[in-house]
Amino acid sequence: MSITRLPEVSGLEWTLISGSRAEAMTDLGRAHADQIAAWRALPSWAGLVDRATGPSRPVFEAVVASTRRLLPVESQELDWLAAGAGVPAEELWALNLRGDLGRDGTGCSDLCAADDQGLCMGHNEDGDREVAPLVRLVSLRIDGDPAMTVVWYPGMLPANSFVTTSAGLSFGMDHVPVRTPLTGGAGRHLVARHAQRQSTGQAARAALTEVPCAGGFAFDVADGPGGRADIIENAAGRQACQRADAGALRHTNHLRMVDGTRPGLAVAPDDRWLAESRTRVARLRAVSPRVGSATDVLAALRSEGVLNRSEDLYTFATTVVDPVADRIWVQTQGPAWCGVLSAFATGERITA
């Protein structure tokens, strides 16, 4: 068991935690108890807890129970995280099920491409600007799992944003709307965590299509060893997958493969977040007509109209991976940092 503070990357603080699953997840909460408390003091946290434990409590409790049944390991991890932070587990469940209890705003953009020459994937992690000072990097070396590094919100299971692992897999997650959750599904953050713990791309893709999300995520998966990239939508028990073998794939925050007009998924035509997501993906398409390199991906994600700077939709970090070249780029406010991807995934900072 060990906790190491690593040098910052593009202004993001970085912590490496090693040990057994129970030790690592408990220490993750304990080492960041102050940051979790800082978010807990914001009105947005109380709003999420009130939403889950108020009129939505029957749905909340049903999704928690279903998640515990479908994903017991990841559920226990969340409980250990709460125990380490000294926060009631119910509150962390409310936080982590924010996208599994009905409509939940918007955020994040993804771009990936793969061909015979290479593979690249990029992700913009977006959210409420008020939590920007809390977002950081965390690396976990858990006995029996691939090592992993995540762009982390203190209090979230380390899974819902951008993740890269020592198995050569990288993941970007985009919120997609679900109006009526699948109460027999699993929390989307825990589905993500389950996939990220897999040792092969095939196993990760299977996890994302076989375990139904109660809410909705689009998963951008770059499989370095397999030489492929896929976007998988998993929304209230409905899944669809597209492989990036005929050009670049782009995704923002509305369903594009699963039929988003179906009952339980459809949002109002004048929904402002739906309009924003459609506008953003159109802009992303316009600035990335051809994707020939990771630097093309980075430039597209940092372009005006894709990079978000509003109070309720703010880009915390852009991450781009090129598994063939073994490179990763991370950018927040200043210049992008470029490092060795395989080292970064295991919690080692090597500048390229």
What can you tell me about this protein's structure?
The protein has eleven helices and 15 strands. The radius of gyration is 18 Å and the shape is globular. A hairpin with a 2-residue loop joins strand 3 and strand 4 (118-127). It has a single domain (2-346), classed as Penicillin V Acylase, Chain A. With 352 residues, it is α+β, with helices and mostly antiparallel strands. The protein has a nine-stranded mixed β-sheet. Strands 12-3-4-13-14-15 form a six-stranded antiparallel β-sheet. It is 32% helix and 28% strand.
CATH class: Alpha Beta
What is the gyration radius calculated from CA atoms? Answer: 18 Å
Oligomer: single chain
Output the number of helix runs.
11
- Tell how many strands the DSSP assignment holds: 15
CATH architecture title? 4-Layer Sandwich
Sheet with most strands: 9 strands, mixed
Uncertain stretches = none
Keywords: Transferase
Domain Peptidase C45 hydrolase: 117-336
Protein name: Acyl-coenzyme A:6-aminopenicillanic acid acyl-transferase
GO molecular function: transferase activity
